[in-house]
């Protein structure tokens, strides 16, 4: 916790009286990072990132977790300029335009020349730290013939259920919405009307959806092409696999940004630069189960070589998403009879 103005004043007076500045006082800085729950879970990257950055910054990292990336943006809008966050980590390219419109962020000032993401996304305000393609993950013990296209998914056997996420609260849910829109265009409402018969439930975020899937509540779930790597590495099983879709897959590029009113702005810039170093990037493949955007200290585990490699990548511009997001969500709500 940051010291109050009074305690700072008294500390400085005491230090002046004895001729030195207390090391404890000098190190008493807290970097507050808003992110999503799975990032800060005990198995997520958060604990390792915290340890690695604290070893270099003479500070304390305080992660504040919310359900998902969309929930992050919603919280920021509610808090406005009173937010205590220094860094927001967990938005994606589908939300950056809307995030900029809040006026709460400023340029990160980090050299991102070594960032590599499909499509070459770059931005002065938001810095990428990982990426992954969305995919339908299926249980091979239940489904022998998985869908091979989005069309197959939409028109397939309604008895084989899928768990998806809500695009109003979840970045994967929004990703699926944009994936369907990219493939079906104006026919998206009809596609959703067909797909709804296969949807077991719509969850607020990714964690709830994937938990239902692994508990056997449904044989399919919306997740990422990288998700099977977790099961192969951590559980030593090939049971859960990603279905490769012939049309291609929509990509999620996750980003972090600096708050204009960050209480610890210079510390925040140091953290953003640190995100592109091995100390952070090493945690991405086997803790966040996504793809790193910069060099890691070691090659990726062998399991990553067995993953689906999309031949076509879909990604709408942030401006296009911002201009149409609400209208497309309304289409989805109507088609899914949730409105």
N→C terminal distance = 43 Å
Q: Which spans have pLDDT < 50 for at least 5 consecutive residues?
A: 1-26
**Averaged pLDDT:** 91
Subunit arrangement of the protein: single chain
Q: Tell me the helix content.
A: 25-40%
Q: Given the structure, what is the number of helices?
A: 15
What integer value in Å does the Rg equal?
A: 21 Å
Biggest sheet: strands, sense, closure?
12 strands, mixed
Structure summary:
This protein is an alpha/beta fold. 40% of the residues lie in helices and 20% in strands. It is built from 15 helices and twelve strands.
Please describe the topology of this protein.
Blueprint: H1 5-18, H2 23-27, E1 30-36, H3 37-40, H4 46-57, E2 60-66, H5 69-79, E3 87-92, H6 96-101, E4 105-106, E5 126-139, H7 150-155, E6 162-165, H8 171-184, H9 188-195, E7 199-203, H10 206-214, E8 220-224, H11 227-234, E9 240-243, E10 249-259, H12 265-274, H13 278-281, H14 283-288, E11 291-292, E12 313-314, H15 318-335
Parallel strand pairs: 1-2, 1-3, 6-7, 6-8, 10-12
Antiparallel strand pairs: 3-10, 4-10, 5-8, 5-9, 5-10, 5-11
Notable characteristics:
disordered N terminus, twelve-stranded mixed beta sheet, 15 helices, alpha/beta, 339 residues
Describe the structure.
With 339 residues, the protein is of the alpha/beta class. Helix content is 40%, strand content 20%. Strands 1, 2, 3, 4, 5, 6, 7, 8, 9, 10, 11 and 12 form a 12-stranded mixed β-sheet that branches. Helix 8 packs across helix 15 (318-335) and helix 9 crosses helix 15 (318-335). The radius of gyration is 21 Å and the shape is globular. The termini are far apart.
